[in-house]
Write a structure and sequence with these properties.
Layout (H helix, E strand, L loop, with lengths): L1 H31 L3 H21 L5 H51 L9 H14 L1 H30 L10 H45 L4 H11 L5 H15 L3 H30 L3 H15 L1 H20 L5
Length: 333
């Protein structure tokens, strides 16, 4: 009996250690192969599906609840795609209006300070852009390929989440080593998802604060095209680095339509709010996962360096997961 108990405990310990290694290998693979967008899309989609399922499970049977959750998720995804398409159409109509007024003002400011711009009006700017595109065709082709690849990763992540959502775990009994490792992996995944949900909840609060602060600034300064600029700040902010640069440029150009002073103030505000976002992120997320602000901030910075924008979201979740796993392990000095 004692030998059987020891062998069972040893097998359980071995399965748990293997699950740790497999889970670590998963994150290493994501970093090395740059699969951050796929992982974020999959985790977020599964989180939404599972949250809806847990709410519906109390009222309807499990199988029906899953299908209702999937239908609601697809409706939300469709609405988001529809909103994005409307925004893109708005860009093609509003941005040229802003540029047609801002560019002459920009030329005047440059002349006043003795700077020689490579263009004097919209026509020359258009010709400059065309020449730049022709000269950088390989880079643009590579960039468009990366964007297409990331879009494919997002779609693949959504489908993986849906398949995982409908996958049943089978028997609870551990009949062999594979079952034991599988169950341990499910425990690792459940612990990580708990941290991811906390981080996403904190990110929603941060996004709401940033969007509200930007909206208040735009309204208080009386910038034109506010109905376009606020959604642009949100949608473009979802794009890594480039999105923030484009949204900031549009807002500064809109301010330049009124005065040079307002454009400078707008640029200073945008730089400040994006830098403050790091500290706000670390503060709110750190409180959510019960971790020191400085350590959360360090994790966010390292995450961005390693994985870009996906790393900003995944780093606090990983920190929470590591803390949760270490808290469950006994310590015998």
């Amino acid at each position: 009996m004692r030998e059987g108990y020891i062998m069972k405990a040893s097998s359980a310990s071995f399965a748990r250690n293997v699950s740790y290694l497999l889970f670590a290998a998963l994150f290493v693979t994501v970093v090395v192969l740059k699969l951050g967008p796929l992982m974020i899309a999959g985790l977020f989609s599964f989180m939404v599906l599972d949250s809806m399922y847990r709410s519906l499970r109390l009222k309807v049977p499990a199988r029906r609840a899953k299908w209702i959750a999937l239908g609601a998720f697809l409706i939300l995804a469709t609405l988001f795609g529809w909103f994005t398409s409307i925004f893109i159409r708005g860009m093609f109509t509003t941005v040229p209006k802003i540029a047609s007024t801002a560019i002459p003002r920009l030329v005047e400011v440059a002349d006043a300070y003795g700077y020689d711009l490579p263009f004097d009006d919209m026509l020359e700017l258009r010709e400059l852009i065309v020449r730049s595109v022709k000269q950088n065709v390989p880079r643009i082709t590579k960039a468009s390929g990366l964007i297409s690849k990331r879009f494919f990763y997002v779609i693949a992540g959504i489908f993986i989440a849906i398949f995982c959502f409908f996958t049943t775990h089978g028997k609870d009994e551990q009949e062999n080593l594979y079952d034991a490792i599988r169950d341990e992996l499910f425990k690792r995944a459940g612990s990580f998802m708990a941290g991811f949900e906390k981080v996403v909840g904190a990110q929603v609060i941060i996004s709401a604060i940033n969007t509200a602060a930007t909206a208040v600034f735009l309204v208080s300064t009386g910038l034109p095209h506010i109905a376009f600029l606020v959604p642009a700040t949100f949608v473009l902010g979802l794009l890594p680095i480039v999105g923030n640069i484009i949204s900031n440029a549009i807002i500064v150009a809109s301010a330049l339509m009124i005065s040079t002073k307002l454009a400078v103030i707008s640029l200073g505000f945008l730089v400040f709010i994006h830098k403050a976002e790091y500290f706000l992120n670390s503060r709110i997320v750190g409180a959510s996962i019960r971790f020191p602000t400085w350590l959360t901030l360090m994790g966010i910075v390292v995450g961005e360096v390693v994985m870009g924008v996906p790393g900003i979201i995944l780093a606090p979740a990983i920190i929470y997961y590591v803390r949760a796993e270490l808290s469950d392990l006994p310590y015998n000095p």
